[in-house]
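Worked example 2:
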Amino acid sequence: MEAAAGYRPAHMAGCNLIGVLSSRLLLVFIAASTLAACASGVQPAIVTASYDTSILQYIDSRGGLPTDVTGNPFSAPDEQVHTVVRETMARSHFGPKFPFLAEKPQGFGSAYRMVVVLNPAPGTAYHKVCTGPATAQTDKPAGGEVRVAAALCAKDRMITSTEGRVAGASGPDDPAFIAVIAQISHALFPLRDEKDQDRMDLFPF
C-alpha cells in the first residue's frame, strides 16, 4: 500500500530527526573548535630574507643563544618561569641543540640573541621586540591566559618573529604553556629551502 501524500513513516521521521541533531552537533563541534583555536595557538612566523638554516650551526659553534625573557604571568618565581621558557625552547627547535643562555659568557662573540616577552604591554608589536627594551604587564592575566611575543635578533635587527597565546595555563609547568613555548621555538627556526624565500623584509616596520 502506498503512503498517503504528506505521510512520513515513523522510522523515516526518526532518521530525519537524527540527521538534524547530527547537523546541529557538528555545528556545535565546529564552533567549539574555532573558539579553542582562538584561545590558544601560534601565529605563522615572520621570516626575513636574512634567515638561513646555517644560523643554527653558527649559534651552536658559539656555545649557545643569549635569551632575554621578560615578564611573569604566574605566581611562581621569575627564575623558575624563565628557566622553563629557555629549556623548552632549547629542546624544541629544528637543527643542532644548543643552550638558550640566561647571560652572555665572558668574551661571547655572537650577535644573535633571543627576546621573549610574556604578556607584553598593550601596543607591543612582536616584530619590534628586538629594537628596544621590552615591557610586560605586571598584573596577572584573568583566566590564566598568557600571551607570548618572541623574536630571533641579530643585535637590534629582527631575523624571525612570532607570537602565541594559551588560555587557562596554571603555571610554568602546565603542559599547555610548555606546548606553546615549544611551538614558538619551532616556528622561529624553520626548515626551508633557499628557493622558498618569503621576502618578509617588506613587512612594514
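Strands lie at 41-42, 46-47, 65-70, 100-101, 112-118, 146-154, 157-166. Residues 40-194 form one domain.
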